[in-house]
Please model this.
Amino acid sequence: DAKTTQPPSMDCAEGRAANLPCNHSTISGNEYVYWYRQIHSQGPQYIIHGLKNNETNEMASLIITEDRKSSTLILPHATLRDTAVYYCIVRAQGGSEKLVFGKGTKLTVNP
Amino acid sequence: NAGVMQNPRHLVRRRGQEARLRCSPMKGHSHVYWYRQLPEEGLKFMVYLQKENIIDESGMPKERFSAEFPKEGPSILRIQQVVRGDSAAYFCASSPNSQETQYFGPGTRLLVL
Model:
């Protein structure tokens, strides 16, 4: 079973920031938080991952709370092409190598 | 640097036939993972392979399914005597080692008639 909880759906206006929350209250000290997205049944696309510090790349920012029990993926300027299902996944480095996908959040970016 | 390649992208089989799905990992990646996505469901892990070795097959159905990753060539997911319930999207991912990020291919959509 997935170790994360996400809202099933969210809406966002085009050009605005999309903030996608994820709860992972049972996360262990050696577990990373990964984010992937799946656009209309395409292969999942890696977005970003982090351990405890906030991370930013060209796609998004990842904010992890100090207690690491939750995180937020931020798409700073959402476009229509960001409409997708976003998956938050907890994965141990050096532990089980497989990714356990939950149901994710269906983000719809509206014009 | 080409991404993960999968072929065919679409495969139609009749019940009882065999399906062979191929996955070529990214250059420099020697770890391959297969996932299955049934209609309207999330992705489920099937098997994890390194070159010539199966590391974790805990998600593989006990019968009719097998996977290999030979020293040369792509990884193959083989489904014998397909049934309608095998209709799904099959995704392959690769990584340079077990610690690093997995990158996914575009998937093979199998339809069993």
